[in-house]
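Subgroup meeting minutes
Present: P.N., E.W., G.H.
Scribe: E.W.

1. P.N. recapped why we're keeping a running log of single-chain structure predictions: easier to compare across weeks, and new members can see raw inputs and outputs side by side.
2. G.H. added today's entry (190 aa).
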Amino acid sequence: MLFARQRRPNFWERSRSAVLPRMGYRRAFRYRLQRIGRMSGSPHYLAAGVALGTALALTPWFGLHFFMAFLLARLFRASLPLALAFTLLNNPWTLPLVMFCNYELGRAILGSNGVGLPPVEAISWSYLLNDGEALLLPLIVGSTPLAILGFCAVYWPLRRKVARMQVERRTKLDARRTAIRALQPEQAII
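Output recorded in log:
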């Protein structure tokens, strides 16, 4: 191949470039967006897959994200590969921030119902081992509006962007086809 690498990057090099892309975050984001726009499927299919994965990444259901993505992608007729890929936004680097936001929002929503809940600073390993199930209710209550907000914040702009990209790509391909047909000589009938 003409522009292929001489050697394939190993696992650590691929992991590093996934976290810290050499081309910069803005260019990497545009590249990923362009890749999504070039995938086959309707704008709803593609945008719903990305939005479902993003929304599920904001929930505290660790270990169930893939299963829930499978079910919800079938239910909403969304892209399963995109939904599965975007559930990985919840990773060891983003997990503390997501759980902190879920817990604090859940405590704020519960108000007087969550009186026995300690602030985040007071949570220790002994509290998690003895009374850890008390944290589940504020996490669930706090993650619900964040997941809905995350879904809406991703779905609507991405759906419009993908639709626009698909129309532009289709018009470019049609223009290229007509130009090629115009250049071809007419076949003589003998």
